[in-house]
Amino acid sequence: MVLASSGDVQLDYDRSGSGPPLLLIMGMSGTALHWGEPFLGRLQRDFDVIAYDHRGVGASTPLGGPLTIAQLAEDASRLLTALEIDSAHVLGISMGGMIAQELALTHPGQVRTLTLGSTACGGPGSTPPHPSVLEGLTEAMMSGDRMRALRAGWEVNVSQAFRDDEDAYAAFLALAERRAVAVPVIVAQLQACMAHDTSGRLHELVPPTLVVHGSEDQMLPVQNGRQIAALVEGSRLEILDRTGHMFVWEHPERSAELLRAHAAVPA
Predict the structure, then answer these.
(1) 237 or 135: whose pLDDT is higher?
(2) Which residues are 235's β-sheet partners?
(3) CB of 86 within 8 A of CB of 20?
């Protein structure tokens, strides 16, 4: 990966494939690697794919204080500018979906189409994870047992059926070994997510919007996807049955097909 200056922040990014530009915005505790090769490989056939690490992650500029979703959206906007991309198709997942909402609201001209995956808009009517989910994750992260923390993260991010796929879990572990995210960064990202609220502004969204959510999402329950789709005029809602938070891992081919169709890229 290489660094691009985003204002006073440098972001580590990878660019691959060919076609119209597609900016991938990763979620909390994730890295650019967490999109997974099966999903990225399918996207690279049709898009110029840009995946990057947020500040505080990987080789990007270290975290220098509290985070806000608006701040992270400015990072994304400035990355596109640094890469001399006037506008791109944008996919944000989880926290990345919150960032994508803010990006599309504040810089609509930079977003050709918007895909919001496994995310929430915050505010009234938003559905948080069950307290047991956050309690379990927090206990695992604070236990000092890294393998326990990774396993807990895996199990709440995928569906019941997928969590026992040991090959998939091994791939997940391998990515964690290649690039870890520090606990203080995860905590700062969580605080940014908790303060996020675009619920009163989503009616202002200009780009064509696709909302994708797994029916078994434990991190951000599927009611959040339904709420966003109801607030964004003309949006399309795609609920993936028996699927967890990391739907691009469980259904890489279907996820790539949805993006291709939304961006109107010929098959």
Answers:
(1) 237
(2) none
(3) no
